[in-house]
Amino acid sequence: MPFYHRLGEMPRKKHTTFYKSDGKLHKEELISTKGFADIYTNMYHLHSPVETLAIKELAVAPDLLWADAPLMNTHFNTDKLSRDGDFLSSRICYLHNNNTKFYAAKPTENANYFYKNAYGHEYIFIHHGTGVLKSQYGNLPFSDGDQLIIPHGTIYQLDFDSFENVKMIVIESSTPFEFPKHYRNEVGQFEEHAPYEERDFNLPEYAKATNEKGEFRLLIKANNRTFDYTLTHHPFDVVGWDGYLYPYSLNIKDFNPKAGRIHLPPPVHLAFVTSNFVICNFVPRAFDWHENAIPAPYFHSNVDSAEVLYYVEGDFMSRKGVSQGSVTLHPLGIPHGPQPGKTEASVGKKWADEYAVMLDTFGQFYPTLEVKKCMDEDYFKSWLGG
User: Fold this and answer.
1) Which of 148, 190, 260, 385 makes an SS bond possible with 194, Cβ 3.0 to 4.6 Å?
2) Is the Cβ–Cβ distance between 83 and 92 less than 8 Å?
3) Residue 227 lies in a domain
4) Can you tell me whether residue 3 is helix, strand or coil?
5) Residues 35-83: tens digit of each pLDDT
6) Which residues of 7-41 are buried (b: 16+ CB within 10 A; e: fewer)?
7) 247 with 352, same domain?
């Protein structure tokens, strides 16, 4: 995060005595990134964060690699599949490579355990649903359209208020979600041209430390392996913290779009960047105002990136046959663009009324066997007849 945040109680100076009411010291924990060279947070616990009663490894999930998947433009609908479970166990992995995974989930229950992704940072888009992200940093309420950024190493739960029409997508990254550097000035403040401002971001709210001893279950994901830890105390025992590292959210409807005299390419929709991909937010916006403008995007061959578009709601002006929950994968190496009639139909239009999340990888992105279960097998033919 580009700005400092603090909650709860802490000593005036770091790494100094901070006593509990029983005369014993609080346990200070430094959560740092890139060693000691990047953003960090100092956290004060009632109990030692290291205390663990038992550790066991859970069975490895079956490999879902679609080894002989054809290289082709692909459309599949994530609303056609579901798996009962909580915010973690209900996830279905559709796309992946060595550093990125794309999931969709329709949770049907809340978890009775805690979760930490040790190696992966998580982006969670709440398509439908309300609730609270609970973590050692405090509480972060969420609702439709919220994009939750959860740094790796965060112990958390997603508690939903109800499970009627709940839907979310998850993008897991081996590197942090950050803001494009050209949006920020030299001290990290968003510049006036950025598509969002500090006021748009929701930060954790204070939650009283939970002082409970006993046995508490924590699942820790480490790439494709998962470990089941039994802790000696409730992990949300933090009385205070401060720093730049914490979960936060941005609602897609708070993203400010940009428009141009002629068609502007997807980088104007940038929301978050990582070392391996970018995430863009497509929102309602004015179309181009050149007298001969073609609002629909031109045909495009991106020889270095795979483009994934998750359709949220609205009228998707360059694509037909898609709906809420649809995903299109346009892999690197082959062209994609508007389907027949969509270019001509866009001429003279003044407004785009669509919400979508785009993931552009810096390298190939592979479908899993789950894609075969919900794909439109004739999607690649949808450009015929033009």
Assistant:
1) 190
2) yes
3) yes
4) coil
5) 999 999 999 999 999 999 999 999 988 878 899 999 999 999 999 999 9
6) bbebeeeeeeebeeeeeeebbbbebbbeeeeebbb
7) no
Is residue 116 within 8 Å of residue 138, measured between CB atoms? Answer: no
Q: What is the CA radius of gyration of the chain?
A: 22
- The reply to whether 85 and 118 lie within a common domain is yes
Burial of 146 (0-12, 13-18, 19+ CB in 10 A): buried
262 backbone dihedrals φ, ψ, rounded to 5°: -125, 175
- Residue 218 belongs to some domain of the structure: yes
Pair 240, 273 in one domain: no
- The answer to whether position 72 is within a domain reads no
User: 92-96 and 100-105 as β-strands: parallel, antiparallel, unpaired?
Assistant: antiparallel
Q: Within 10 Å of residue 70's Cβ, how many Cβ atoms?
A: 9
Place of tokens 């400010």: 256
Q: Is 357 a residue whose pLDDT tops 90?
A: yes
The pair of structure tokens assigned to 87 is 């915010």
Contact 104, 78 (CB under 8 A): yes
Tell me the CATH number at 328.
Answer: 2.60.120.10
Q: In terms of domains, do 52 and 125 share one?
A: yes
Express each pLDDT in 223-241 by its tens digit. 999 999 999 999 999 999 9
Residue 352 maps to a domain: yes
CB burial readout 84-113, b (16+ within 10 A) else e = eebbbebbbbbbbbebbbbbbbbbeeebee
Q: What is the pLDDT of residues 82-108, one digit of tens each?
A: 999 999 999 999 999 999 999 999 999
What letter would DSSP give residue 300?
B
Pair 154, 290 in one domain: no
Predicted TM-score (pTM) of the model is 0.97
Q: What is the mean pLDDT of residues 282-303?
A: 93
C-beta separation of 175 from 276 below 8 A: yes
| Boundaries of domain holding 36 | 5-64+81-251
147 & 240 share domain: yes
